[in-house]
């Protein structure tokens, strides 16, 4: 499946609306003036409001499970707008897929 390449300033949120921030693993590959994102990057979620039975159970990271099959950035698969991911809590229980709402429009991959 094809989609636009994500970069570190793309708007990615957990399924509950908390914004994810990216710590890039590389700074060499750039799309639209921003560092391109790969599965090697560390996506952290802060401020997730999700609770289960009145106990906070927030999303803490994003783990990409179906990234690009053809594009690699420093040996790691690139993350596309169409990539599938999971937002696990601290105990690794999946909370749902991330939402990608704003991404660069120039570079497209598979």
How would you describe the overall organization of this protein?
- It is a single chain.
- The protein is an all-beta fold and 110 residues long.
- The protein is 0% helix and 36% strand.
- The chain has a 4-stranded antiparallel sheet with strand order 3-6-9-12, with no helix packed on it. It has a two-stranded antiparallel sheet with strand order 1-14.
- A hairpin with a 2-residue loop joins strand 10 and strand 11.
The oligomeric state of the chains shown is: single chain
Give Rg in angstroms. Answer: 14 Å
Order of helices and strands: EEEEEEEEEEEEEE
For the largest beta-sheet, the strand count, sense and barrel status come to: 4 strands, antiparallel
Uncertain residue segments: none
Inertia-based shape: elongated
Class per helix and strand makeup: mainly beta
**How many helical stretches?**
0
How are the strands of the largest sheet arranged? 3-6-9-12
Instruction: Give the fraction of residues assigned to helices.
Output: under 10%
User: What is the strand tally?
Assistant: 14
Share of residues in strands: 35-45%
Task: List strands and helices in order, with pairings.
Elements: E1 3-4, E2 11-13, E3 20-23, E4 30-31, E5 34-35, E6 42-45, E7 51-52, E8 55-56, E9 61-66, E10 72-73, E11 76-77, E12 84-86, E13 99-102, E14 108-109
Antiparallel strand pairs: 1-14, 2-13, 3-6, 4-5, 6-9, 7-8, 9-12, 10-11
Structure in a nutshell:
This protein is mainly beta and 110 residues long.
């Amino acid at each position: 499946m094809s989609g636009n390449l994500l970069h570190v300033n793309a708007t990615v949120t957990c399924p509950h609306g908390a914004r994810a921030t990216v710590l890039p693993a590389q700074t060499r590959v750039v799309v639209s003036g921003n560092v391109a994102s790969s599965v090697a990057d560390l996506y952290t979620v802060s401020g997730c409001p999700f609770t289960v039975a009145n106990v906070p159970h927030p999303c803490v990271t994003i783990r990409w499970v179906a990234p690009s099959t053809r594009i690699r950035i420093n040996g790691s698969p690139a993350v596309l707008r169409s990539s599938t991911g999971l937002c696990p809590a601290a105990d690794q229980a999946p909370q749902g897929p991330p939402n990608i709402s704003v991404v660069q429009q120039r570079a497209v991959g598979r």
